Structure formats: C-alpha cells, structure tokens
Amino acid sequence: MIRLFDIILSLITLFVLSPIFIFLFFVEFFNKNSIFFYQQRVGLNKKIFTLVKFRTMKLNTKSVSTHLISIHNITALGLVLRRFKIDELPQLWNVLRGDMSLVGPRPCLLNQKKLILERNKKKIFTVKPGITGLAQISGIDMSTPSLLTKVDFTMIKQMNLFYYFYYILATILMIFRKK
C-alpha cells in the first residue's frame, strides 16, 4: 500500500512543482553548471543506487556527508535550495524508480562505514531508504550514527500508514516554518 502512495504522491508533487524544476534548469543552464547532482548511496538490502539531487555545492566538492562540508563549498543558490529542502525534490525520481520511499531512513554514502555498521546491527537495510522520516523531523543528521540508527529503528518498528503520512506532513510543516 505504501508503494502505491509513494507513486501517486511523487507524480502529483513532480507535476505541481515542475515550474521550480524548469526555473532551476534555466538558472543553471546560464551558469553552465549541471542542475543535477548524482551520488552513489546504500539502499535496500545494501544495494547501491544512484541518488539524484539538485546541485547545491560547487563542482569537484569532495563526496562526504553534508556535516563534513565547509559552508564555503555551497553555492549561493544551494543555500536557498537546502534551506527549503528543494534540493531533495529530484529524489522523487528515485521514489518512482523504486530505489526509495517517501518515508524511510536517509540513504547513507558508501564511505560512511560507522553508520553502515550501526545500521547492519539493527537491520535498517531491510527497508527502503526515504526522503524524510523521524530523524529528519527530529533534527538528527548523519553526524551521530548511533543516535540516527536508534531513531531509524524506532521509526521502522512503528511504521504504518498513519506514521507514513504523519512524517510527510511534519516535514512539510517544518519546511514552511523555516520561512
């Protein structure tokens, strides 16, 4: 059932927000940059997939977790995209492809060995990664692998349709509160 909602909500969101995609395409086209950023991530059953995001960092920035990146590596447009989570919108394509769900643990990088080890212990890789979830609405990032894994495990244990929609709505409210 969640997969069906993933597809329906992703398609609706992509359609409604397509003007943002078009606008960003033209902005980046004139800056001669690629609008999209592709990165290898660890997904369901530790299968590697290519995550798609809007580019927020300067070209040739090292591929590490965001908390390890200097703010000087983030472009001016990137700061705005990140603040309102717009950089995450292309991940709706990953949801449509079946690599991700709208709700689930954030997919980690291949070089986040401690996080991968913690997630293995709690069997976090038995569910699809997501765009949002309990950790995101709680303000927990990948800089604290043990805490992140504990929160992800809690989310997975209680996941049902109520929580699926709760996390989506809580994320939307969190974004609008930032304005």
Description:
- Helices cover 49% and strands 12% of the residues.
- It is of the alpha+beta class.
- It has one domain (2-177).
- The strands form two sheets. It has a three-stranded antiparallel sheet. It has a two-stranded parallel sheet with strand order 3-5.
- The longest helix is centred in the last third of the chain and has 17 residues, at 161-177.
- The radius of gyration is 16 Å and the shape is globular.
Give the helix tally.
Answer: 8
Adjacency order of strands in the biggest sheet = 2-1-4
Amount of beta strand: 5-15%
Number of domains: 1
Q: What's the quick description here?
A:
By secondary structure, this protein is an alpha+beta fold. The chain is 49% helix and 12% strand.
Comma- or semicolon-separated keywords:
12% strand, 179 residues, single chain, three-stranded antiparallel β-sheet, 8 helices
Would you spell out the secondary-structure blueprint of this structure?
Layout: H1 2-16, H2 18-30, E1 36-42, E2 48-54, H3 76-83, H4 91-97, E3 101-103, E4 108-109, H5 113-121, E5 130-132, H6 134-138, H7 145-158, H8 161-177
Parallel strand pairs: 3-5
Antiparallel strand pairs: 1-2, 1-4
Helix pairs in contact: 1-4, 5-7
